[in-house]
């Protein structure tokens, strides 16, 4: 009997801005099951700032890292082009924004649109933007959660791949609620990235169909 063909392992570049626990969840899963079974490997980790735990996690894992800071460029467009160029050099199949707190621009999206995945700590389209957890709490929502989606040229408006639900408790403050969301978010991100890497997907308008 012919051996089952092994699908190529997809190359991931992960972008971070903070503690990098979502990145760590990806690293841990790939280390646990192996890149072949997971369907993807992380080939580089990038950030928009230095001295963050997300970069330290990548360095401990022996991965190449890079930093592109907006303030080092004359314009936002130049920063965006530099980020796009650096990410491109690692030849990723997918780029994952795992707590990357910058909106990318035209050049980045022209190269990586349709293969740039973001995770957001709210149930989109509710509570987009930088304060999704705080805004859900302030609104008095009884459930919130996290959304893994493709990035388009809006703020957290791209096609949704998967969502996880978290109940809001009366005693929650922003930090307690965010921690519970992140537990679900890390599992969801690991599951979704692996699934789209292994199975492939199509984006039909707003719908993401995993093959
Ligand atoms: C996540 O909740 C992400 O959705 C939000 O920032 C958090 C990043 O956490 N944008 P970490 O850096 O992966 O620990």
UniProtKB/TrEMBL annotation:
Active site (record annotation): 120
CDD domains tied to this protein: FMT_core_GART
Domain annotation Formyl transferase N-terminal: ranges: 10-193
Transferase in keyword set: yes
Entries under Gene3D superfamilies matching the protein: Formyl transferase, N-terminal domain
Alphabetical list of InterPro entries matching this protein: Formyl_transf_N (IPR002376), Formyl_transf_N_sf (IPR036477), GART (IPR004607), GART_AS (IPR001555)
Keyword terms of this UniProt record: Purine biosynthesis, Transferase
EC number: 2.1.2.2
Binding site for (6R)-10-formyltetrahydrofolate: 76, 101-104, 118
Entry annotated with the keyword Membrane: no
GO molecular function, one term: phosphoribosylglycinamide formyltransferase activity
Catalytic reaction annotation: N(1)-(5-phospho-beta-D-ribosyl)glycinamide + (6R)-10-formyltetrahydrofolate = N(2)-formyl-N(1)-(5-phospho-beta-D-ribosyl)glycinamide + (6S)-5,6,7,8-tetrahydrofolate + H(+)
Functional pathway: Purine metabolism; IMP biosynthesis via de novo pathway; N(2)-formyl-N(1)-(5-phospho-D-ribosyl)glycinamide from N(1)-(5-phospho-D-ribosyl)glycinamide (10-formyl THF route): step 1/1
Site feature location: Raises pKa of active site His: 156
Residues noted as binding N(1)-(5-phospho-beta-D-ribosyl)glycinamide in the record, renumbered to the chain: 20-22
Enzyme class name: transferase
NCBIfam families registered for this protein in UniProt: PurN
Family the entry assigns: Belongs to the GART family.
Function: Catalyzes the transfer of a formyl group from 10-formyltetrahydrofolate to 5-phospho-ribosyl-glycinamide (GAR), producing 5-phospho-ribosyl-N-formylglycinamide (FGAR) and tetrahydrofolate.
Record-linked HAMAP family: PurN (MF_01930)
Protein name: Phosphoribosylglycinamide formyltransferase
